Amino acid sequence: KPLLKSPLVLQKVRSSLQSRGVASIASLGRAFRQMDSYDGNKKLSKDEFYNGLKDYRVDITKQEANALFGLFDKDGDGTINYDEFLIGVRGNMNSTREAIVMKAYNKLDKDGSGHITIDDLKGVYTAAKNPKVISGEKTEEQIFLEFLQKLGDKNKDGVITKQEFLEYYSALSSSVDNDQEFVFIITNAWKL
To answer: What distance in Å separates the CA atoms of residue 95 and residue 98, rounded to the nearest whole number?
Structure first.
């Protein structure tokens, strides 16, 4: 990934967008859709990203925009999807949000190994009553693996690392405007 010559470029983009009222989830969604209006594929190309930032009067060079694009494009597919855009503009979770996510992670990591596995999940999540298990279409293990993948197991190895868990919840966090609401969501989801 290309590195920005200065973290000030990212801050400049964030500040510029915020000064134009682009800070809430709704306004970020509108900004993303406007930038994507060239082809409407729900992904931003490098040109759409650069032109969109210029449309929002962000003072940025093409080289800076390309470096920032590389930073936002987490999956390396050459485009920025909506989640990548949100995370890029909103940034990482603050300490309040990260603390509640780590509390959930530590609850799930039953054996304290530093990884969440199917065995860790069995104490907090049951697949026995899943309709696909009942019908015989899938095994409980297959359902657990799917659940792990939905929680961020990108490489599909049946293990969620702390980093994968944080990345998953960082994406969720970027779509929740209020800290209290985010804490409520995580607390209720994992019965903390």
So the answer is: 5
Q: Is residue 152 scored above 60 in pLDDT? A: yes
Please give the full DSSP string across 89-117, using - where no structure is assigned.
HH-S--HHHHHHHHHHHHHH-TT-SSEE-
Q: How far apart are the first and last CA of the chain?
A: 37
What 8-state DSSP symbol labels residue 122? T
Assign 3-class secondary structure to 10-68: HHHHHHHHHHCCCCCHHHHHHHHHHHHHHCCCCEECHHHHHHHHHHCCCCCCHHHHHHH
pLDDT for 25 equals 63
5 DSSP assignment: S
> What phi and psi, each to the nearest 5 degrees, are found at residue 160?
-105, 120
Question: How many residues in the chain?
Answer: 192
Distance between CA 92 and CA 99 in Å, rounded?
Answer: 13
CA contacts within 13 A on the Cβ side of 126: 3
Residue type, 24: S
Q: What is the pTM of this model?
A: 0.68
